[in-house]
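Quick one:
INPUT:
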């Protein structure tokens, strides 16, 4: 749920009495291979700092609600102690619409008629929790009511329209624990509860009703601390029944709001997980297992009036890395994702390997909504930075539809049915790292945007991948490309991609069909691979960037990615290199005429300012020649790829290290090694702009990615581009893969 006073850490908690349930109706590990065409198209990604007077301050959007007409969004900004407003009248072009200071930390928001109901945490400490509900007019943003809640609020939910017995608001009063006390274990009093309000008339007349959960939890198997429920997310069905997750207790309670009575409570149970990655070792290896894992649900949503769907984020001792559907009367699990949610993340390059020993992708929130007559479940992965979409036509057998990449830490999930929109709000905002909180807008479309790349699942296990740092054509197969992972993962892997430039495939742009592990003398090898070129005669040339100049070298590989030869850069070049070394490699000719051409990311310390180098290595003679390349102004600008165009012509990618709205330099240039000027020691190349890539990177409605790392011309004559997702760490994790069209249109007919 909302940002805590202290970040949660995993702790050991013995729950021997936990109800253990079998995985019923679990989705198959290869569900993505049978998925229909994507259903949702991303229209826009709005950085919420645009609602701030100072873009350098931390500004988040955590939970978002919409006005009755679906044109204005209200989002909680916990660090700023305010809510922000975003105008989505044109969902392709959201606009900042101001902010309202609250005098406390907002934790959740909902909209009733023309009112925004904002839960605000005003706690002085963990042991002295307090909070209030502010009712704000959406017309003039005046505070119409300030209602004392008696404790620290978390989420808020409203009755669906037409519910019997009137309209209610319900608020989880969490009274969260202090993670610095007793390793964060519960109980830590005071305990939490639920507050309900019957809505109607003037907001100043609304009266809160406190509903205690503790009496109903006593004696329930698996509830370890009935006196400290710690309620998290709340949801209300069409019968005015409230379901609330008790995350740290691994439980769920169901409340009759009309009678202010707890109807029942039950454990969410445990799961035996197999086929997941449980070790943080720089490899994606989904072969591990965990036993008796408490689900510890966070987000919850009703599916009809009798089932609840839960996102099993985990906290103290659990997290089943997926989501489940339970019978809200008996607590019986009718469907569980098993390992498939995590394997979706692996297949789409969104698996956070650095979280393998914790809770993996951390599915945190879930919502259910009906758009255009179809009911969907939307599950947000806090660490994987994506939302998975499922069709709930058969509620006990959800069908995977689509993965929607978003920015870091998706928490808020909102369906606007009357406009066929899905709104996500991602809460992580680290201005100094260029990681910004955003609101993303998706629309249900007949023809929708496809994910960039996914991997196949040979033998039912998806090929793990990420941090793609290069692209290369496959000389033997026109519809295949090669790519490689950089130093984020070890050992280094080369990936074969199947592409289809015909436009007939709608489910994805490229599929990773196999992987080769880099080896040397029979042992797996990890390098910082930044460039890859496939040879006509078989095998590859690989550009390896070193942490220092001396570590930069090019490697000759055979067709099975075994190192055959290492070629270091000349001593005079490596001595002038810092951390911005080899970034691209191309190969021309074969046999006695084979030449390897490389691009250095940044200038040598011994060269003129703003001038980097392109080098040509004659394989037969082992000699180097060097050319100067003048970069665009800016200390962060460098080269990241080089591609042979024929003869002595090459294309390069020149880019800055900025993302989102700050991105300014993402360009393709061409150079001709036969056309130079300047001193003989370092002749200067003339560069010609072939394409500004920023319009291409913005066209998908997503966050403009920093690292345009791979470019090639496939055997089908099309130009392909890929971005490096940094292994889903301190970056959104999305991989953008683009078909830029035929090379002769991008680079000219001579290409």
């Amino acid at each position: 749920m909302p940002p805590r006073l202290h970040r949660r850490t995993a702790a050991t908690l013995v729950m021997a009495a936990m109800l253990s349930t079998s995985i019923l109706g679990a989705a198959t590990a290869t569900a993505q291979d049978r998925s229909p065409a994507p259903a949702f198209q991303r229209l826009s990604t709005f950085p919420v700092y645009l609602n701030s007077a100072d873009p350098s301050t931390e500004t988040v959007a955590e939970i978002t609600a919409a006005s009755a007409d679906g044109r204005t969004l209200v989002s909680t900004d916990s660090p700023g102690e305010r809510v922000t407003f975003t105008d989505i009248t044109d969902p392709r072009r959201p606009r900042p619409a101001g902010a309202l200071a609250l005098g406390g930390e907002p934790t959740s928001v909902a909209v009733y008629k023309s009112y925004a109901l904002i839960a605000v945490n005003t706690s002085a400490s963990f042991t002295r929790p307090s909070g209030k509900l502010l009712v704000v007019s959406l017309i003039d943003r005046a505070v119409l009511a300030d209602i004392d809640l008696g404790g620290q609020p978390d989420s808020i939910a409203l009755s669906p329209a037409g519910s019997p017995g009137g309209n209610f608001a319900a608020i989880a009063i969490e009274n969260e624990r202090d993670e610095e006390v007793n390793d964060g274990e519960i109980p830590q009093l005071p305990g939490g509860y639920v507050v309900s309000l019957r809505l109607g008339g003037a907001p100043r007349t609304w009266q809160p009703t406190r509903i205690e959960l503790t009496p109903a939890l006593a004696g329930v198997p698996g509830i370890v601390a009935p006196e400290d429920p710690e309620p998290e997310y709340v949801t209300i069905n069409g019968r005015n029944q409230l379901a609330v997750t008790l995350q740290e207790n691994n439980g769920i309670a169901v409340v009759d709001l009309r009678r202010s009575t707890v109807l029942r409570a039950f454990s969410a149970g445990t799961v035996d997980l197999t086929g997941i990655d449980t070790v943080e070792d720089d490899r994606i290896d989904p072969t591990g297992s965990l036993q008796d894992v408490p689900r510890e649900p966070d987000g919850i949503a009703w599916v009809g009036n009798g089932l609840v769907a839960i996102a099993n984020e985990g906290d103290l001792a659990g997290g089943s890395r997926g989501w489940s559907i339970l019978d809200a009367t008996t607590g019986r699990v009718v469907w569980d994702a098993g390992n498939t949610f995590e394997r979706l993340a692996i297949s789409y390059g969104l698996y956070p390997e650095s979280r393998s020993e914790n809770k993996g992708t951390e599915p945190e929130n879930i919502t259910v909504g009906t758009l255009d007559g179809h009911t969907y479940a939307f599950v947000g992965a806090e660490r994987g930075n994506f939302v998975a979409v499922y069709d709930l036509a058969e509620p006990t057998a959800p069908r995977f539809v689509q993965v929607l990449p978003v920015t870091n830490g998706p928490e808020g999930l909102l369906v606007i049915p009357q406009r066929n929109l899905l709104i996500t709000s991602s809460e992580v905002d680290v201005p100094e790292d260029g990681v910004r909180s955003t609101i993303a807008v998706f629309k249900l479309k007949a023809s929708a945007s496809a994910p960039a790349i996914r991997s196949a699942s040979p033998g039912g296990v998806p090929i793990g991948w990420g941090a793609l740092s290069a692209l290369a054509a496959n000389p033997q197969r026109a519809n295949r490309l090669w790519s490689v992972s950089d130093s984020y993962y070890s050992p280094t892997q080369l990936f074969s991609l199947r592409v289809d430039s015909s436009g007939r495939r709608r489910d994805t742009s490229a599929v990773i069909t196999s992987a080769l592990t880099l080896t040397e003398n029979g042992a797996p090898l990890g390098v910082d691979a930044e460039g890859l070129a496939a040879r006509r005669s078989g095998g590859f040339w690989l550009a390896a960037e070193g942490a220092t100049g001396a570590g930069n070298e090019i490697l000759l590989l055979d067709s099975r990615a075994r190192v055959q030869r290492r070629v270091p850069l000349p001593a005079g070049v490596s001595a002038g290199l810092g951390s911005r070394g080899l970034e691209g490699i191309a190969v021309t000719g074969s046999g006695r005429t084979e030449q390897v051409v490389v691009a250095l990311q940044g200038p040598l310390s011994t060269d003129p300012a703003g001038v980097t180098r392109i080098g040509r290595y004659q394989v037969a003679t082992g000699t180097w020649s060097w050319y100067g390349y003048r970069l665009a102004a800016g200390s962060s600008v460098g080269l990241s790829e080089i591609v042979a165009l024929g003869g002595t012509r090459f294309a390069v990618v020149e880019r800055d290290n900025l993302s989102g709205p700050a991105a300014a330099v993402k360009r393709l240039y061409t150079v001709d090694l036969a056309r130079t000027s300047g001193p003989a020691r370092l002749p200067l190349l003339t560069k010609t702009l072939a394409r500004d890539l920023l319009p291409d990177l913005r066209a998908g409605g997503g966050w403009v990615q920093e690292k345009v790392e791979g470019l090639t011309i496939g055997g089908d004559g099309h130009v392909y581009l890929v971005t490096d997702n940094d292994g889903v760490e301190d970056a959104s994790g999305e991989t953008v893969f683009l078909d830029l069209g035929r090379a002769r249109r991008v680079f000219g007919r001579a290409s």
